[in-house]
Amino acid sequence: MTDFEKTRRFFNLPEGMIYLDGNSLGPLPRSVPARVEAMIRDEWGEMLITGWNKAGWMAMPRRVGDRIGRLIGAPAGSVVMGDTLSIKVYQALASALDLRPERRVILSDSGNFPSDLYMAEGLLKSLDRGHELKVVAPEDVADHIDESVACLMLTEVDYRTGRRHDMPALTRRAHDAGALAIWDLAHSAGAFPVDVRNGKADFAVGCTYKYLNSGPGGPAFIYVAPEITEDVRPALSGWLGHEAPFAFDLDYRAGQGIDRMRVGTPAMLQMAALDAALDVWDDVDMDQLRARSIELIDLFIAEVEARCSDVTLASPRDGTKRGSQVGFRHPEGYAVMQALISRGVIGDFRAPDIMRFGVTPLYIGEAEIIGAAKHLEDILNSNEWDTPAYRARAAVT
Amino acid sequence: MTDFEKTRRFFNLPEGMIYLDGNSLGPLPRSVPARVEAMIRDEWGEMLITGWNKAGWMAMPRRVGDRIGRLIGAPAGSVVMGDTLSIKVYQALASALDLRPERRVILSDSGNFPSDLYMAEGLLKSLDRGHELKVVAPEDVADHIDESVACLMLTEVDYRTGRRHDMPALTRRAHDAGALAIWDLAHSAGAFPVDVRNGKADFAVGCTYKYLNSGPGGPAFIYVAPEITEDVRPALSGWLGHEAPFAFDLDYRAGQGIDRMRVGTPAMLQMAALDAALDVWDDVDMDQLRARSIELIDLFIAEVEARCSDVTLASPRDGTKRGSQVGFRHPEGYAVMQALISRGVIGDFRAPDIMRFGVTPLYIGEAEIIGAAKHLEDILNSNEWDTPAYRARAAVT
């Protein structure tokens, strides 16, 4: 049994704040400050350069990768940490196109996170070989999988609406057409049970600062299916992905297995924060987490719909078809969200009109859900959102 | 006047250690632990997602970039932080090739850091348009600059020997031939005065964990000459380089100026460490630092040559032609270096036979230099290095 009171105590949650934005940046795990300080003072401070061996820094991207692997159904040795999610998307895409040289289409959808699409655009502009990035509506993806498609590139959970794709079904369809499947798990890893192995993903990538609570700018991960790893020729062929980085050869030779997806020197302070943050998962049953997430979101939808007449649900009503977030549309969603934030109810806004709430059972329960719905009701009834300050858009939303 | 006793107190230096590896990983600045802890506890912990605006995280890659800019002669707004050096090399190279579409040669040298060459190899393999990565001896670079060259890609200071290229002269020659110049300043920034503006570099990149003391995996930087920035079409077109990242448009539009070289979500804990580490430079006169570095290395060479008959200098004898490091060759250099490290004299080894020592006047003085030379003399005279343990190579050297 997962003890959600215990997991809640794992986090530092500011007094009076209802934090429904763990799908954007997870809260601080209480174990993080000491772990990062230990790396800084005892490892960097005392071991200096020898920390790469003595403190095991060099091995951490693989060791921590295995910890992530257990959350996404990836076998040991098939996940490695590093860089940002955008870079990992690029690596996966470049590899997939290289593995399907005769095909010219990357198939994605308009619910994908824009950075994934941007990275694809940049890659295709560089390649300049007549590839096409085909972006269709999420519900039309299956119909566009054909033998022109080199790879499917999808984010499993829509960052705005929370709509969840059927990874195994779409991947099967891609494979039947001879295409590869790249899955962005940014809103999946740590949100619900993921099984890249049974889902047959060829590549899976994700960030760790959302449901995995690694802090701002925490390292990304990449999974490559073991069957194809040795065929991958890295486009971003950095020295730490070399077969023998410290031989300092002039020519690149890809490292063994997943190591070839490493690029440059990994950000070790962020890695320490992530490593400490992952401890909470030792006590979590993912199926229970999923059940609780659906229960809490169902409750939130019921409360909001009962209290607020002028918002509409932007997410699937069927919990199994959602990630661990819910969105509501309101024409003045941006200003309403600012009013909520002023009251300490932290969600976020995604253009054009979605108020987005992450529901993270590790530290969110019924009290917060009902409290948030009440605040939203108050704000809408009183038009509290209708001020110039709340309408003025900040750089980061 | 730079007060080198004061700059020394800025750093935590373990008792009894002579640290001559600041060219690989700088020591811990005493200001770092508190600054990182403040970001973790007061910003991430209390502000959570709102830290991106409230704590100024989103602006830090540019703000810190300007601090680096002052050390390398770059105007405000022309440097941005993020990713790793290998990624920044890739961005610069892809941009340079795109700006010289009719040319097919990247010219580099065998003294370049291998990862720079590997990244070029990976890029050219992806492009598959008949480009050539031409790698010549460092002293032959000038002779190979001709109108086939799209860009020169050089590390100013040779990572093994410390040999320093003449940046302004080679860049002028490149420009005369219509080529662009990319300079890797990994062993330059913080090591001596750099002036990318007067040197006319088109792109400059570097890491911050060496002479800038940002800690393991600290963020890299990229400079683009303001004249060409608006012509750069980013190959790694991530969302934070978009003109309006939070509009979440489906199409990429490059951001204004240097912002377009941003890719994904930056590693903020590392950025905080770097920001704290940079404070020391407020009190440093770079010309004095350079003079002191040359003086200390000259002393080290004299001491080692007087004491040790079986090592040979691997670096230029003329201080103006070196970076801030010195190398000595010894056929058993690897084992000798392990013996030195066991005695607390920390340098490193670069294949095939170079013992490498970074000389960093911010925290190294005559006592350490003479001490290190004495230890080396002892080890060589006693054959203390000649044990199986010292000969056994570790993963990271």
Architecture overview:
The structure is a homodimer of 397-residue chains. Chain A is of the alpha/beta class. The first copy, chain A, folds into 2 domains: 133 residues, Aspartate Aminotransferase, domain 1; 250 residues, Type I PLP-dependent aspartate aminotransferase-like (Major domain) (Aspartate Aminotransferase, domain 2), CATH 3.40.640.10. In chain A, the strands form 4 sheets. Chain A has a 7-stranded mixed beta sheet, with helices on both faces. In chain A, strands 11-12-15-14 form a 4-stranded antiparallel beta sheet, with helices on one face. In chain A, strand 14 and strand 15 form a beta hairpin. Chain A starts with a helix and ends in a 6-residue tail after the last helix. The interface between A and B is large, with 94 and 94 residues.
Provide key terms for this protein.
homodimer; 397 residues; alpha/beta; Aspartate Aminotransferase, domain 1; Aspartate Aminotransferase, domain 2; 2 domains; seven-stranded mixed sheet; four-stranded antiparallel sheet; 14 helices; 38% helix; globular
CATH topology of the largest domain in chain A: Aspartate Aminotransferase, domain 2
Show the largest interface.
A-B, 94 and 94 residues
Q: Give average pLDDT of chain A, whole number.
A: 97
**What is the terminal separation of chain A in angstroms?**
37 Å
Helix content, binned percent of chain A: 25-40%
Low-confidence parts of chain A: none
Please trace the helix and strand order of chain A, writing H or E for each element. HEEEHHHEHEHEEHEHEEHHHEEHEEEHH
Q: What is the top-level CATH class of the largest domain in chain A?
A: Alpha Beta
Q: Per the principal axes of the C-alpha atoms, what is the gross shape of chain A?
A: globular
